[in-house]
Amino acid sequence: MNPSIESEDLPLRMRAAISLARSLLAKKVGGRLIAINKEASLQLQFGYVLQQVLPLITFHESQQLGLELETGAKIGQSVCNIDVLFTGGCPVGC
Length: 94
Prior knowledge:
Structural class: alpha+beta
Number of strands: 2
Strand content: 25-35%
Radius of gyration: 15 Å
Shape: flat
Strand order of the largest sheet: 1-2
Largest sheet: 2 strands, antiparallel
Helix content: 40-55%
Number of helices: 2
Distance between the termini: 22 Å
């Protein structure tokens, strides 16, 4: 099943938002509207485009979506550096 930006399922909408942001960024870079000269600028631009999509996939007041760049996360016994961390949840039934 392809993720849909209109799905009632928040994780599916989040995946669709990532796909949409990636596609939009690729088209803007390919069309030379956005210049990328380093990996960090690519991450920053991707984060910006994804941040603009978040309000479009929030369908319920209690849904919480977050975006962090260059953050650390403990995975097992190690702390890993994550370039772009996109989180979401719905603590109250949505």
